[in-house]
Amino acid sequence: PPLRENARSGPRAAIVGAGLSGSLLALFLARRGFRVEVYEHRDDPRLSKDEGDGRSINLGLSARGIRALRRAGLLEELWPHTVPMRGRMIHSPSGELTFQPYGTADHEILYSIRRGVLNALLIEHAEALGGVTFFYGLRCVDLDADTGTLTLSDTISGETRRVEADLVVGADGAFSAVRRLMQRGRSADLHQEFLEWGYKELTIPPAPDGGPRTPIEALHLWPAHRALIVAHPNTDNSLTCTLFLPHEGGSSFASLGSGAEAERFFRSRFPDALRLIPDLAEEFEANPVGRLVSVRTSAWHAGERVVLVGDACHAVYPFYGQGMNASFEDCLVLDECLARHPADRGAALREYQDLRRPHTDVLAELSKENFLELRDGLRSPVRLLRARADLTLNRIFPRGWQPLYTMISHTSMPYGEALHRARRQNALLGAAAAALSAGAALGAAAAVRRLRRRTGASARRT
Ligand code: FAD
Description:
alpha/beta; FAD/NAD(P)-binding domain; D-Amino Acid Oxidase, Chain A, domain 2; 3 domains; 7-stranded mixed sheet; 15 helices; binds flavin-adenine dinucleotide; oxidoreductase; pyridine nucleotide biosynthesis; flavoprotein; NADP
C-alpha cells in the first residue's frame, strides 16, 4: 500500500546510488517509515540508451536475490522478464555441448535478467510506494559522517547542494565515494584487488527465424586456455556473452588490437562461438573493456548515521554470480536489523555489519576460487567426477549432502556456514575415497596372495 502518510513524518534517509542495491533498499526503508531520497550521478536508467552503461548487461538471479525480491513484493512482475537457466552448457572447441544441471531439485535453477529491466522495476516500485524520491545527475562529493550531511554536485552545472539526513546510505558501488568519505580520519582496513583479467560484452543474436541459435535455458560457457566466455540468455532469444581475457600479454585485450585480430583469435580458441556471433569484429572494436575488482573493508558503518550496502562494502569477482544476490541480501538483513532495534540505530548498524561481513569476506574468496575453476577445471575429468559424486550423494541424501555450489546459489545459508559444511563433506568424501582405495588395495593384495599360492602350487606341480 502507498506509504505517503507515515513517510511524511518519519526519519530522513539519503541513499547515494540508484543502482540495484540503492533502489531495493529505498523500497525497504520507505516501508520502515523513512522519508527516502536517492541521489544518482547518472541519468535515470529508464531513459538511458546505453543499457550496460559499462557494467554487465544481464545477471544471474539466484535464491538469495529471489528471497529479497519476494519480500519486496516484486517477484510476480519480474518473472516474465527472466529466462530460467537450468544448468551450465559447456561448449568444446569442436562445438560439442555438455550439459551440467545445477542441481537435483526442480527449484535449483538460476534466472537470467537484464540489469536495466530489473533496475527500472525496482525504481518504479519504490516510487509507487510514495515517500521515495529519486534525483539524477547529482554526484556525492563530500560527507560529514557525524552529522549525516551530504554534499552533492550537479553533474551539468557543477552547482553544489547540501542535504542532511538521519541515515546516509552508500549504495554507490565498488568505487564508493561514501565509503571513502565515511572512513576519512577513522581506522578502517580496506583491501582492494584488481584481477589481471578484464571483460568485454558481445552478442549472440536470435537466429533469422527468431529462435535461439543455441539452447536457451542454460548458462553457456566456453572454457579455453587463458580465455573464457560466459553467456546469459535474454527473453528475445539472444544471449549476452562476456569474454574474459587477461589485460596484458599474449592473446590479451592489449594484444588483440582490431576486430580482425579478434576474429582470428576466436577461430583458433572459440570456433564454435565465432559461428554464433556474426558481428564479432564490430562489437569487439566498439565495446569497452571492463575491469574486475574485489573490495573488502572492515568498517561498514560510521556510528549511527552512515552505512554501506552492496558493492560499496563487498565488491566480488563475478565468477560465482553472487554480487547482486549478496547485495540484495544486505538490504534484507539491514532492514531486519533496523526492525529489531527501532530505538537504537547504532546497534542496528553494528549488528548488520557483524551479521554480514564475515560471510561476504568468504564470498570474496569463493568468487576468486571459482575464477580459477572456471578458467582451468571445467573440462577436467577429476572435477567432473567430483561434481557427479556430489550430485549423486545429494540425490541420495537431499538434506544431509549439498554441493557447495548448491548451498551458495540455491539456499540462503550464510556463505561462511556453506563453506564450513562443504569442507566437512570434502573431508568425508576424501576419507571414503581413501577407505575405498585401501579396501581395493587389500583386495588386490589378497588377489596377489591367491595368485601366488596358485602359481606357486602350479610351479611345484610342473
Ligand atoms: P552498482 O550496480 O555499481 O550501483 C552503484 C550506483 O551508484 C550506480 O548507479 C552509480 O552510477 C552510482 N554512483 C556511484 N558513485 C556515485 C556518486 N559519487 N554519487 C552518486 N551516485 C553514484 N551479480 C550477480 O548476482 N549475478 C551475476 O550474474 C553477476 N554478473 C556480473 C557480471 C559482471 C561482468 C560484473 C562486473 C558483475 C556481475 N555481478 C553479478 C555483480 C553485480 O553487477 C553487482 O554486485 C551489483 O551491480 C552491485 O549493485 P550495487 O547497487 O551495489 O552497485
